[in-house]
């Protein structure tokens, strides 16, 4: 029979249920059987309870995974990546591999597949998405919104100023508002 994997929230609920059963006089083995798990599992969960309480409830494991081999290059690589994006230069994993090799000789001597896996893990861990198709796709939405607001701040007062020529392709005539008498003249 395949063993079921519980997420941390379920494990903590089962430990609370286990504590209630133990208060009612159940043995470890009997309480574990009534919960549908092995006694060793209950022991492990009890031992790991402080760590599990600090983890997100939907996770199934309390392991943090392997430590990155390029942790010391994280800040310089991310900074360089952001600088390249600010200049509108598209990035690829190969470019990041070259930059990491320039920053650390050990990385350059590793096999290409290993370099790729390290860079990919770094990008995943820091939520860096590499888009190579267009320059516009690499711009942050907030930067685009700020630029648009700045443009409107400059253009809106000009368009609304007296004596400014306004043209619309749907108009059959051009309207000119004179700052002197504010009368409409057809051109």
From TrEMBL:
Name this polypeptide is given: Uncharacterized protein
């Amino acid at each position: 029979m395949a063993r079921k994997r519980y997420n941390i929230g379920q494990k903590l609920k089962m430990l609370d249920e286990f504590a209630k059963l133990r208060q009612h006089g159940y043995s470890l083995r009997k309480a574990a059987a009534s919960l549908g798990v092995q006694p060793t599992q209950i022991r492990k969960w009890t031992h790991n309870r402080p760590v599990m309480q600090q983890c997100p409830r939907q996770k199934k494991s309390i392991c943090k995974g392997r430590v990155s081999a390029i942790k010391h290059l994280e800040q310089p690589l991310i900074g360089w990546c952001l600088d390249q994006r600010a200049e509108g230069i598209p990035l690829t994993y190969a470019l990041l591999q070259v930059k990491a090799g320039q920053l650390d000789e050990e990385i350059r001597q590793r096999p290409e597949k290993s370099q790729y896996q390290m860079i990919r893990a770094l990008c995943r861990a820091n939520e860096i998405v590499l888009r190579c198709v267009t320059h516009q796709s690499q711009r942050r939405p907030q930067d685009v919104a700020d630029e648009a607001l700045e443009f409107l701040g400059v253009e809106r007062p000009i368009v609304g100023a007296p004596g400014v020529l306004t043209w619309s392709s749907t108009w059959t005539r051009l309207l000119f508002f004179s700052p002197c008498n504010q009368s409409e003249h057809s051109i």
